């Protein structure tokens, strides 16, 4: 197996991670893909049912905040590259429990960096630590402007502060110990397998169930949206072609005010569900704003376009339509997830 690249993907049972794992397992049969995931509320092996039997796929259950476990796995499997996605990822949860975010997002990332450093032992040829991050590290924008790779970090939520910190540690390990790294900061993703605490699947689920559609504040918060499969294509390109010790911004060139997005979802879903146009919009209710809520995020993705030739390929209407279809066709997946813990979370959050 020595000629086969051994790749650790963390958080592969989550939303984006499961798309990344599936893509690498299917497209690169010569790579051995190790998916390390603690299976928190957000991790679900159902997301990978279609590839779990593939000979180049291996699941490792474990928590990246546990030092001994992480060191032992690196010694045993001699990973040559890491694609690090494991994280606590939901801003609202970070407001309730910041330390959980420190533990996984900061301590967990440092454990992976230390283990890489120790197993690679200065032989960095062909090695890579690829850290997946978010545009939220840059803070908020006014009506105009775009986040560039050179924009100063200014995180406003415990989630984005923990991600910003992990980005800094990755960069510092590159500078201090020479670890070959690359970081990408991406805007909001959407698509199949996204946990229904996040805006788009939450709204689809509530539209289907004819429940209220909770929109924060005045609904004028603006986000850039990217179809998850376009993010995966960018990750593949960056993994194989990016210049080392660099950061790349990834975005959909697709800004929407939350309220406009929810209305669009209502119209698309009404059509698919055979409901009269306008039916679901009546479910929209404005709820108390999230504290520290960032007004607007938008990405300048010209660096990855120029250097690696990446652009989003799926239009928003196409992506949303595929996503709604997927949630309608996978009612069991949704039901399994929206029982138990999720229901408790939802009731605390919105009722
Ligand atoms: P997710 O919450 O859906 O999945 C996170 C995964 O990490 C889950 O499978 C969970 O079980 C696992 N995990 C959590 N804590 C762990 C731990 N201590 N040890 C091992 N595994 C653990 O998240 P996502 O939306 O797929 O995001 C993945 C990554 O991409 C995160 O690093 C996030 O910051 C980043 N990101 C997400 C978005 C987005 O819009 N979702 C945008 C930009 C960047």
From TrEMBL:
EC supergroup of this enzyme: lyase
GO biological process: nucleotide-sugar metabolic process
EC number: 4.2.1.46
GO terms for MF: dTDP-glucose 4,6-dehydratase activity
Source superkingdom: Bacteria
Cofactor requirement: NAD(+)
Record keywords, A-Z: Lyase, NAD
InterPro entries named in the record: dTDP_Gluc_deHydtase (IPR005888), NAD(P)-bd_dom (IPR016040), NAD(P)-bd_dom_sf (IPR036291)
Pfam families in UniProt: GDP_Man_Dehyd (PF16363)
Domain NAD(P)-binding: 8-323
CDD domains the record matches: dTDP_GD_SDR_e
Family: Belongs to the NAD(P)-dependent epimerase/dehydratase family. dTDP-glucose dehydratase subfamily.
NCBIfam families: dTDP_gluc_dehyt
Protein name per its UniProtKB record: dTDP-glucose 4,6-dehydratase
Species the sequence originates in: Christiangramia oceanisediminis
Gene: rfbB
């Amino acid at each position: 197996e020595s000629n086969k690249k051994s790749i650790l993907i963390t958080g592969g049972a989550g939303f984006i991670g499961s798309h990344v794992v599936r893509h690498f397992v299917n497209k690169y049969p010569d790579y051995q893909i190790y998916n390390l995931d603690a299976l928190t509320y957000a991790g679900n092996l159902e997301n990978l049912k279609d590839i779990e039997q593939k000979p180049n796929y291996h699941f490792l259950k474990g928590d990246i905040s546990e030092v001994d476990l992480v060191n032992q796995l690196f010694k045993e499997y001699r990973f040559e590259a890491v694609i690090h996605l494991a994280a606590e990822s939901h801003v609202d949860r970070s407001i309730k429990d910041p330390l959980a975010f420190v533990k996984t997002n900061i301590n967990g990332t440092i454990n992976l960096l230390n283990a890489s450093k120790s197993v690679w032992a200065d032989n960095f040829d062909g090695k890579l630590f690829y850290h997946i991050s978010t545009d939220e590290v840059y803070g908020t924008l006014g009506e105009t402007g775009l986040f560039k790779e050179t924009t100063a970090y200014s995180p406003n939520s415990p989630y984005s502060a923990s991600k910003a910190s992990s980005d800094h540690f990755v960069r510092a390990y590159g500078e201090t110990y020479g670890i070959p790294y690359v970081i990408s900061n991406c805007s909001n993703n959407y698509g199949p397998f996204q946990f229904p605490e996040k805006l788009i699947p939450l709204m689809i689920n509530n539209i289907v169930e004819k429940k209220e559609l909770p929109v924060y504040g005045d609904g004028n918060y603006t986000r850039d949206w990217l179809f998850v499969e376009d993010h995966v294509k960018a990750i593949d390109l960056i993994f194989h072609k990016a210049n080392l010790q660099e950061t790349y911004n990834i975005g959909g060139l697709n800004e929407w005010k939350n309220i406009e997005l929810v209305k669009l979802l209502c119209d698309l879903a009404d059509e698919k569900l055979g409901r009269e146009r306008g039916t679901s919009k009546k479910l929209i209710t404005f709820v108390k704003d999230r504290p520290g809520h960032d007004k607007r995020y938008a990405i300048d993705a010209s660096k990855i376009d120029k250097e690696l030739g990446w652009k989003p390929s799926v239009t928003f209407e196409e992506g949303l339509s595929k996503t709604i279809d997927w949630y309608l066709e996978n009612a069991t997946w949704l039901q399994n997830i929206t029982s138990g813990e999720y229901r408790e979370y939802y009731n605390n959050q919105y009722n």
